[in-house]
């Protein structure tokens, strides 16, 4: 059996679309476990009204007693699951109908299958763009370049699932891939454009706290990253700092990445030119940092 785990918090607008996406999979031998992270909105009511006939048959609804965060909720979903294979789906994302089937065929040989998202949708599920960006072809480069992590694109053999770090509110989805690789688990990159990521103002990836947790992961793993991939690892963290406006730390890490290998491809040069001199972003970062501390 396959277990699809959907976590939701303040997701009343999109949760039913995620559940429908799971129900519409070409493989029907699956259970859907919805973990409600003590959501204050009508997420539960929406699910019960739309899918009441499936509750406790194919859809199992669990509500946390208090808000615990996405890592706790995903881990709880795994504890409650009956399946041999675990597929995560965020409440605001969707899948193509053959996503589970296409990933499942690799999960006997690999511990984890990751399908890099290329399609991005808006609040009405209409396609905004389809990325043609070239991504690294091997798992190691993808992991240490930070191009990996979306839970909705992640499938695990249950016996190889190490658990999301509950002390990380963000970047836990990146950290689990680093830790899994360090533990010797086999990871398959399946670039087949089967996952649709919804873009909207409430995605937590836009919060500056994402930068702080990125730095936590960096400080924990920088001395453990294989030498071959340290440049990519450091450059990714530098780029994150510039993206959120911490230009001094970003430039410091850029020069550190060059110490491993001076060559920088043109796309990274464009990134430096785009973000490295945004002093308005730096002022926004200082303001946001002070608010976060308070």
Please provide a written account of the structure:
There is one protein chain. This protein is of the alpha/beta class. It contains 11 helices and 11 strands. The chain has 2 domains: 2-203, Alpha-Beta Complex (Spore Coat Polysaccharide Biosynthesis Protein SpsA, Chain A); 207-293, no CATH class. 39% of the residues lie in helices and 16% in strands. The strands form 2 sheets. A 7-stranded mixed sheet has the order 3-2-1-4-9-6-10, sandwiched between helices. Strand 7 and strand 8 (127-130) form a beta hairpin. Helix 7 (209-221) packs antiparallel against helix 8 (230-243) and helix 8 (230-243) runs antiparallel to helix 9 (247-258). The termini are far apart. The mean pLDDT is 91.
Supply the number of structural domains. 2
Taking the sheet with the most strands, its summary is: 7 strands, mixed
Taking Cα atoms only, what radius of gyration do you get, to the nearest Å? 19 Å
Category by helix and strand content: alpha/beta
Which homologous superfamily in CATH is the superfamily of the largest domain?
A: Spore Coat Polysaccharide Biosynthesis Protein SpsA, Chain A
The top level CATH class name of the largest domain:
Alpha Beta
The CATH architecture designation of the largest domain is Alpha-Beta Complex
Largest sheet: spatial strand order:
3-2-1-4-9-6-10
Give the CA-CA distance, first to last residue: 47 Å
The percent of residues in helical segments reads 25-40%
CATH fold-level label of the largest domain: Spore Coat Polysaccharide Biosynthesis Protein SpsA, Chain A
Strand segment tally? 11
């Amino acid at each position: 059996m396959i277990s699809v785990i959907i976590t939701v918090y303040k997701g009343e607008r999109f949760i039913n679309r995620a559940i429908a996406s799971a129900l519409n999979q070409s493989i029907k031998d699956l259970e859907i476990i919805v973990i409600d992270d003590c959501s204050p909105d009508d997420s539960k009511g929406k699910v019960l009204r739309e899918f009441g006939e499936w509750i406790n048959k194919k859809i199992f609804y669990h509500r946390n007693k208090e808000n615990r965060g996405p890592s706790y909720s995903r881990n709880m979903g795994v504890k409650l699951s009956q399946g041999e294979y675990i597929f995560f789906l965020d409440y605001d994302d969707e899948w193509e109908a053959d996503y589970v089937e296409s990933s499942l065929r690799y999960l006997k040989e690999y511990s984890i299958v990751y399908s890099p998202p290329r399609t991005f949708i808006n609040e009405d599920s209409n396609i905004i763009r389809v990325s043609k960006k070239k991504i690294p072809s091997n798992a190691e480069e993808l992991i240490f370049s930070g191009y990996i992590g979306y839970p909705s694109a992640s499938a695990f053999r249950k016996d190889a699932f190490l658990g999301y770090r509950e002390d990380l509110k963000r970047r836990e989805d990146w950290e689990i891939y680093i830790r899994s690789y360090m533990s010797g688990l086999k990871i398959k990159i399946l670039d087949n454009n089967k996952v649709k990521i919804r873009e909207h103002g409430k995605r937590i990836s836009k919060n500056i706290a994402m930068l702080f947790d990125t730095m936590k992961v960096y400080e924990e793993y920088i001395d453990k990253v294989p030498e071959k991939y340290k440049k990519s690892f450091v450059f990714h963290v530098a780029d994150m700092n510039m993206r959120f406006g911490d230009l001094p730390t970003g430039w410091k890490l850029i020069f550190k990445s060059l110490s491993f290998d001076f060559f920088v491809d043109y796309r990274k040069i464009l990134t430096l030119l785009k973000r490295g001199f945004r002093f308005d972003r730096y002022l926004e970062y200082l303001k946001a940092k002070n608010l976060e501390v308070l």
